Amino acid sequence: PQNMPLQSKTTDCTLVAHSRCSMEWSLESVREMVAGGMQSIRECEICAFAIAMCVLLLFMWYCYRVGREGKGKHGSMLEEQNGFAFCQSSECFRCTSAGESLNQRLYHSLQDYAKRYTWSGMGRVHKGVRDQGRYLNSRPTIQRPEVFFLPDLPSAPFFSREVQRHDVELLEQSFPALLAEFESIYHQPPARSGSSLPPGWKANSTPRGQWWTYYLVNQGTPLVLNVRRCPRAWRVLGQLRTFIANNVFGNACFSVLTPGALITEHYGPTNVRLRCHLGLRVPPSCELVVGGEPQCWSEGSCLLFDDSFLHRAFHEGGAEDGPRVVFMVDLWHPNVAAAERQALDYIFTPGRLEDKEGK
């Protein structure tokens, strides 16, 4: 308006100019912010991509290391040579004397079992695990299991066939089938040139003569290739009621001693089992000595003994007598209760105690 004072006009102009400047500044700021945001997003995408690639590379490196270590571990510890799986680890509880480290691993495994299941019926197992070092070191030289001693079990070098009557009778009834299956795997041509062993057989160390074994189950682990060659023997094992099939104390194999062979004195790993030998071929002058007591095998009959006692075997016959052959299985000691068997299967599951050491 023409009559408006000069001061008011000046003020209005100032406000308009300021408003325009503010608008221009705000738009410029928004453009800069948007541009900066887009740049940040692009940088974040690049950063995220770089991080993802680093994570992927780390994961691939980890898988490579784990795979390599696992291969090295299993390649050196649990190899299969001619069908036989065996341990070469210096930490294997079956290959080293029991010490404080093993005692701790046993106790941790027992605690884990009790948390998962129950402490009921674990009195003797708990007592054995808690005082294992004392038991193993204080045992008389006639009976000294190398790994685990369960206290308060009746001990004797040899046991009557009646203590495991069902399984003994089943094995003896299976004598013709087991003998025929032995013949089929024993008379195969050598597994490879330069070897005298048929496929699946392993030669054990002896001071003289030859001791060959053909394992279907070794330290609780079935050997698939050998099992496939012996379906009837495998079927028999599945019908046994007391065969130790789920822990490292369980074995099943054909065992051959050639004439002149000697298996030197040694102890088994535990007193919770009885070793059963079914005689398949038994020439004269063959003997098993357990705890100083000698016994002879008989074809078609089972011999039960506690191999935690000091024992040895020999074949003093001539070449014309042929080899001594037995089918060997590990059965539960008859006085180990069902709850104790379940706990021992859990504690001594193949690989469990080694895994406690991070191997």
From TrEMBL:
* GO MF: dioxygenase activity
- Residue ranges annotated for the Aspartyl/asparaginy/proline hydroxylase domain, each copy included: 203-334
- Where would you say this protein principally sits, based on its record? membrane
Q: Where in the cell is it found?
A: Membrane
Gene Ontology cellular-component terms listed:
membrane
Database matches in InterPro entries: Asp/Arg/Pro-Hydrxlase, Asp/Asn_beta-hydroxylase, IPNS-like_sf
UniProt keyword Transmembrane helix, yes or no: yes
SUPFAM superfamilies assigned to the protein according to its UniProt record, in alphabetical order:
Clavaminate synthase-like
Which branch of life, at top level? Eukaryota
Keywords annotated in UniProt: Dioxygenase, Membrane, Oxidoreductase, Signal-anchor, Transmembrane, Transmembrane helix
What family, per the record?
Answer: Belongs to the aspartyl/asparaginyl beta-hydroxylase family.
Q: By what name is this protein known?
A: Aspartate beta-hydroxylase domain-containing protein 2
Q: What is the lineage of its organism?
A: Eukaryota, Metazoa, Chordata, Craniata, Vertebrata
